Amino acid sequence: MRTAMPAVPEALTVPEVMTALRLSRSKVYDLIRSRQLASFTVGRARRVSPDSLRTFIQEQIEENAA
After folding, report:
1. Separation CA 51–CA 57 (nearest Å)
2. Could you read off the pLDDT tens digit of each residue along the chain, which spans 66 residues?
3. What distances in angstroms separate CA 23 from CA 17, 39, 53, one per listed residue?
4. pTM, to two decimals
5. How many CB atoms lie within 10 A of CB 57?
6. Which phi and psi angles does 3 have, rounded to 5°?
7. Is the N end or the C end of the chain the one with fewer CB atoms within 10 Å?
C-alpha cells in the first residue's frame, strides 16, 4: 500500500522561503537568527514549517497596519 505525499510540504527549505518572501538568503537567515521566523534543523539542514511562515507573514501585516 502506497501513501500519497502531501500536496503542501511539511517543511520548507531556505531557498523555498526565499522564493515565498522574495528575500535574499542572508535576510532569511537574519530572520531565523533573530527568532522572527521559527525554524528547526535536521542534521545540518535548516527547515521552516509552512505554519511558521504564515505566522511570520501575519505578524508583519499586523505590525505594519498599526
Report:
1. 10
2. 566 666 778 999 999 999 999 999 999 999 999 999 999 999 999 999 999 999 999 999 999 987
3. 8, 16, 13
4. 0.84
5. 13
6. -100, 130
7. N
Coil, strand or helix at 48: strand
C-alpha cell at 63: 505590525
SS3 5: coil
The one-letter amino acid at 4: A
Burial category of 46 from C-beta neighbours within 10 Å (exposed 0-12, middle 13-18, buried 19 and up):
middle
Gyration radius (Cα) of the chain, Å:
13
